[in-house]
Design brief:
single chain, alpha+beta, 4-stranded antiparallel beta sheet, 3-stranded antiparallel beta sheet, 10 helices, 35% helix, disordered N terminus, disordered C terminus
Length: 293
Amino acid sequence: SSALKWQHGKLVGKGLVSDAVAKNKPARVTPDRRWFGNTRVIGQKELDAFRENQLSPDAAARFYVLGGECNYLLGLRAAPAEGGGYEYALASMEERWRSVWDPPAAACAELLDVAEASLAETMKELELRVRVIRKARACGVVCGGSEGKARYPDGAGSTYIPRESLDELVLRLQSALRAYQSTAPGPHLPFCAFNGGNDVFCDIGNKAVGVDGLRRLLGLPPASVLHVGDQFLDTGNDYAARVVVPCVWIINEKETVQVMKHILKDALEIPEAEMKEAAVWGSPELKGVAVPQ
């Protein structure tokens, strides 16, 4: 699964992350519309697997999507379709989630003001062709396109932000936020400042809040929850989850599938012969088996 190198370290063959390493890009999971990856968008296409395999409403109700680290909770719902069977859709669970996480708007704005100032300062100092995006509970930078190129002709970041620049943005951002919280009156909001692969964001809250909140909402003990992620370094957004539940560090969706197979085999005691990809979804015996993401 690793990249092939010759004796002097030059990459000569493909591994799971060799293409990214060879081009000095962040070695992260490649975005893929077939699964909930780095696209940050969930549409009808992501629900095709549920439609094709017609999971029961009870099984479908075990799937959740938690976005913005811990700020937006969606639940999968199955309803009878006109031609028979079930149709699937994601429904907002905002009201229920507020009982778990509802940070004050004023405190969010103050923290994000600091984040925005830090990002703008680093962008100017490093002459990065990026643009700042501000949301209610997040602030970040993305590639700036032609506008960014016109602003900094000799800079980088119009279509691709170098990994070193991404990490520098994150480290300065984290430092600025910690300095602010060290002098500001508490209680302090948790935050997550992370390298997203080709962007940098600061989100209000973090995955410790999200994973632990979802765990409590479902009434599960920490030992019954497993967080699977690919960003456990201090500039990533999975690191915080380590303090609340067991975690597994993966580098692509194939490893996630393998982790799920281990759960099905060792925890649910499903025979290994039945754990081919088609069987996991399509076998009548496994129709009721669904593990929350």
